[in-house]
Specification:
Number of helices: 7
Structural class: alpha/beta
Strand order of the largest sheet: 2-1-3-4
CATH superfamily of the largest domain: Resolvase, N-terminal catalytic domain
CATH architecture of the largest domain: 3-Layer(aba) Sandwich
Number of strands: 4
Strand content: 5-15%
Shape: globular
């Protein structure tokens, strides 16, 4: 049975650079066509590229990600995806930042036990950190509103060429900085336009 190696990367903030994750996966030996990428995090883990990759994984394949929080946005999601890939599909997972979680080398009982303990601890820490960041953001918004600050901006048209650049950025073919330079926008202006574009697409 042929073994395929796949890489998955995700960035959860608009201007976070996805290229760093891509280069690490390429250095690891993943071919470009087997690298999948998603931008922004969805409430129910509905990430289109990840779902395509999930369907392609088969027994004996190897999924490589930079860090454990690429697998999910909270403790339950990480645990669920790990069990699905390792137990149901019978594929392997490699976490670049945490070699002890390499399921290819921890097949014995003790190795599996250690991996399970570390996995539970790290996924819990990842969820706790995200919840703390969300709380701080909510507190900042509440303070700004209490001080009477206006959080919105007047609507303005998208600049020429924005749609083309947006699609390239969304697919991982252009990073945030390149997009800002090409459209002659500040980082803050571009962040705002991308958020608006995502809202428009959902609507």
């Amino acid at each position: 049975m042929k073994k395929n190696y796949y890489g998955y990367m995700r960035v959860s903030s608009i201007d976070q650079n996805i290229e760093r994750q891509r280069q690490e996966l390429l250095r690891w030996g993943i071919v470009e066509k087997h690298i999948y990428a998603d931008r922004l995090s969805g409430k129910d883990f509905k990430r289109p590229s990840y779902q395509k990759l999930r369907k392609r994984l088969k027994e004996g394949d190897v999924l490589v990600v930079k860090s454990i929080d690429r697998l999910g946005r909270n403790y339950e999601e990480i645990q669920s995806e790990w069990r699905y890939i390792v137990k149901e599909v019978k594929a392997d997972i490699v976490i670049i930042d945490m070699p002890i979680l390499d399921t290819r080398t921890n097949k014995d009982l003790i190795g599996t036990l250690i991996s399970d303990i570390v996995l539970q601890l790290l996924s819990y820490v990842a969820q706790t950190e995200r919840e703390y960041n969300r709380q701080r953001q909510a507190e900042g918004i509440a303070i700004a509103k209490a001080q009477g600050k206006h959080l919105g901006r007047p609507r303005k048209p998208y600049p020429k060429g924005f749609d083309t650049c947006f699609e390239s950025w969304h697919d991982g073919r252009m990073d945030f900085s390149e997009m800002a330079v090409q459209l002659h926008l500040s980082r803050e202006e571009l962040r705002w336009l991308i958020r608006r574009k995502n809202r428009d697409k959902k609507g």
